[in-house]
Amino acid sequence: MENEKENLFFEPHKRGLMKTPLKESTAANTVLTEIQPDIGPLTTPTKPKEISQGEPWTPTANLKMLISAVSPEIRNRDQKRGLFDSMNGLPEAKDCLHEHLSGDEYEKSQPSRKEKSLGLLCHKFLARYPNYPNPAVNNDICLDEVAEELNVERRRIYDIVNVLESLHMVSRLAKNRYTWHGRHNLNKTLGTLKSVGEENKYAEQIMMIKKKEYEQEFDFSKTYSIEDHIIKSNTGQNGHPDMCFVELPGVEFRAASVNSRKDKSLRVMSQKFVMLFLVSTPQIVSLGIAAKILIGEDRVEDLDRSKFKTKIRRLYDIANVLSSLNLIKKVHVTEERGRKPAFKWTGPEISPSPSGRGPVLPLPCSDLEAKRPSKDNCAKNLFSTHGKPNFTRHPSLIKLVKSIESDRRKINSAPSSPIKTNKAESSRDLAPFPSKMAQLAAICKMQLEEQSSEPRKKVKVQLARSGQCKPVAPPDTPASAELDLTAPSLIQPLGVVPLLPSPLSPAVPVILPQAPSGPSYAIYLQPAQAQTMTPPQGLSPTPSCKATKSKDAADAITEKAARDATKSGASTRPGSLLPTPERPGAKNRDKEPAGERGSKRASLLEDGGSKKKFKEDLKGLENVSATLFPSGYLIPLTQCSSLGAESILSSKENSSTLSPNHRIYSSPITGVIPVTSSELTAVNFPSFHVTPLKLMVSPTSVAAVPVGNSPALTSSHPVPVQNPSSAIVNFTLQHLGLLSPSVQVSASPGAVPVSPRIEAVSVISDNAGTQQGRATRYDSPVPGQNQPNGQSVAVMGTQQPVPVTPKGSQSVAESFFRTPGGPGKPTGPSCVDFDGANKTSVGTLFVPQRKLEVSTEDVH
DNA sequence: ACCTCCCGCCATGCT
DNA sequence: AGCATGGCGGGAGGT
């Protein structure tokens, strides 16, 4: 096989062990087997092996594994070692890692927990694939294989994949298969998440929570009501807030079925968690706050400790993966009380919408063929099949769904493409990692190893070649813009809407407001969630797609822009782009204003200023009726829309199909939206969950898929060779289309240049471990996206305006945060925040009472 | 003692 | 019925 194996990793760094590897690594299986014998004595066979062996993961197998299990790793190490040696020659690195082996190798026997950490595992996993894979190539990921290669249980792979899926870096293809998308879509995804987060008013929620905490600390006991109120609203009564998953363009659909299952989880949590970062001003989020928000209820604390603890556990899992992606890093916030662990966003700044640039929709040209698959996906998502009980749909819809599902299944079942093999070719972008270097050696090692081992990897090594990578990434920008213009057409599709509402369907798709150009996504809300939501400010107005969208987007953008501006210095992010006009008024919304900052303890920084903000925000919230709605699963309009629409519309499809772009817009989802607007505002949507989102589709369309794809292109893309079934092919095409087009077409977006992030510098502190962090950013393929938008962070500015205030103490603080004006600038105090954000360094805020500091420390 | 978070049991739901 | 997924929380390693 592939071989990649490389994996290796298990290195025990520490432990050292020897480094000698063997190489067996290659095929894990074989190796394993071989090894086992040897190892056998010492350790147990590991499960990995078993796994690797292929067995099916039957329970029995599990048992076996378990039994044997004990020390798989050891083996792995050995293997690794071997691998390394053989493969690479990078012993050095290894050495470094191992450094001291203490001599005992035995220790190695136990890899130490760290060696087994999800973060490390994730690095290994990521090392196998290029940041910006060539769409043309098939980038399939076979979970079993990966598990084997990495010598871990499959369960762990799921953890990683789920998080990656939430970022649309991978999408599920079929049963054991995922397709690697790398960072092509990342910016878009982040943009979408940001938009959703804003809509959900996470910033506000964060503030509230902080505020409460703060008060509590102090004794303020008051004010809860409002806050609680708000929160609840967000969550919905259920308490669960969200559960929806946001899908992006291109990626994902298939998951739908999967998603259906439990969407609650990791995938959704991951998205929400990311949203918190994107929305909050300092971009520092403590686990506690995140957990509370994710739980939905604020008071959770009181209620379920256990729940809270569980949530925290999961957040750590997610955080490890995100850290591996260099999107966040661990930091500590210091409060009076003490330090709290928190994570700081080190990823690219995003503009609200992804920027989409537009490229376009991805529609694949091929109409029918391509469409269908996508449709299916869309459909699924939209309607969750899963069945949740509720589900009721319009009969017609149901039929559609069924058919779709069946199709889907077929597809899934169908064998998929081979595995990763291609990777090698694909260029991996990894390359530019300057920062990485800084990062932990371990990581480096891993990478190296990988590289060496795998051909593709090599690329990385080479370097960064930014060039190569880029190719892939398409620069959407240009195109996108165009698209946007066109967007208007989208509206039509709305017609579809009616359908959506279908009452019960568990999930309702909502359209997000994408950012300006960005692609639109659909969110699926689950029924339960549905509840009230208030429309985001922007939304309320009419649904008109454009309008709404723009608004939101605008808002977001504006905010972002502001941030950028403010930050820009710091952060770097280029972005300023956003020229988008904002809508003047819009900004008011509070969304972010206060954002996170605030509250007490947790975020330190935030607190001070925040209070005021909080108050203000609160007020604002009240007014608004805050609603956060649950988030849903976002689906990229681009594809989906098109697809969805098609499916939904069925009849219409044809017409729509014609122009991809348009279609896209139309996405069914969108349709839904329309409804909302007016209604939304007010209230809840009873049955439907639909929330109001912004419907619009983004003119932009789209989808901009990361890559930029043009629809047309899609058709062309190369498909992987084998296509088992036509369906599959179609499916593939779609994906490809999405990706490929962009890739092919545009240059890569991000062109390397991007890297500029300051943060990279900051790296310093992070934890070493995994983090490494930021380095990646450069990668972000998307740079384009990012930059363009310029998202900055400025959230605060204007928004805050709302003065609510509750308690007084804040005044001083307030002043800090709030800046007078403009959005952009946060004023001084804010600066602090920014620091946090940007700099890793520490910022201190003075809050009236206390000062908070944020330190980025390394955790470990 | 607390922070992290690995491990894997077992529920869930698709096949 | 079997298997792929993945929720979940015990409990242990690290500090």
Largest sheet: 5 strands, antiparallel
**Extended strand count:** 10
| Structural classification | mainly alpha
| C-alpha geometry | globular
Distance between the termini: 36 Å
Q: Mean pLDDT score, rounded? A: 44
Strand content: 5-15%
What does this structure look like?
The chain has 860 residues and is mainly α. It has a domain at 118-217 and 262-345. The chain contains 38 helices and ten strands. A five-stranded antiparallel β-sheet has the order 4-6-5-10-9. A hairpin with a 4-residue loop joins β5 and β6 (339-345). The longest helix is centred in the middle third of the chain and has 27 residues, at 545-571. It is globular and about 70 Å long. The two termini are 36 Å apart. 76% of the residues are buried. The model is unreliable at 1-108, 220-243, 249-260, 354-444, 449-519 and 526-860 (pLDDT under 50). It binds a DNA duplex (15 and 15 nucleotides) through α3, α7, α10, α14 and α15.
Helix-strand layout with pairing:
Elements: H1 28-42, H2 47-53, H3 59-69, H4 72-87, H5 91-98, H6 105-109, H7 112-116, H8 118-127, E1 140-142, H9 143-150, H10 154-166, E2 170-174, E3 177-180, H11 186-199, H12 202-218, H13 224-235, H14 255-261, H15 264-279, E4 284-286, H16 287-295, H17 300-303, H18 305-324, E5 328-334, E6 339-345, H19 367-382, H20 395-413, H21 434-438, H22 441-453, H23 455-462, H24 466-472, H25 477-486, E7 508-511, E8 522-525, H26 545-571, H27 604-624, H28 637-649, H29 653-658, H30 660-666, H31 668-682, H32 711-716, H33 726-745, H34 759-762, H35 783-789, H36 796-799, H37 811-817, H38 828-838, E9 843-846, E10 851-855
Antiparallel strand pairs: 1-3, 2-3, 4-6, 5-6, 5-10, 7-8, 9-10
Helix pairs in contact: 1-2, 1-4, 2-3, 2-9, 5-22, 8-10, 8-18, 8-22, 9-10, 10-15, 10-18, 11-15, 12-13, 12-16, 12-27, 14-19, 15-18, 16-18, 19-20, 19-28, 19-33, 22-23, 27-37, 27-38, 28-30, 28-31, 37-38
This protein binds a DNA duplex (15 and 15 nucleotides) through residues 47, 56-59, 62, 65-66, 69, 112-114, 116-118, 143, 153-156, 158-159, 162, 175-176, 257-258, 260-262, 264-266, 306, 309-310, 312-314, 316-317, 320, 341, 386-387, 409, 412-413, 859-860.
Pfam families: WHD_E2F_TDP
GO molecular function, one term: DNA-binding transcription repressor activity
Main location: nucleus
